[in-house]
Amino acid sequence: MCAPEGTTTLSRLEEFSGIEPVPATTHTQCLVLFQQGRVDAITGDDTILAGFAAQDPYAKVVGAAISDEPYGVGVPAGDVDMVRFVNGVLERTKSDGTWAASYDRWLGVLGPAPSPPAAVYGRTP
Question: What residue spans of 1-125 are helical by DSSP H?
Answer without folding.
Answer: 8-13, 27-35, 46-55, 80-95, 98-107
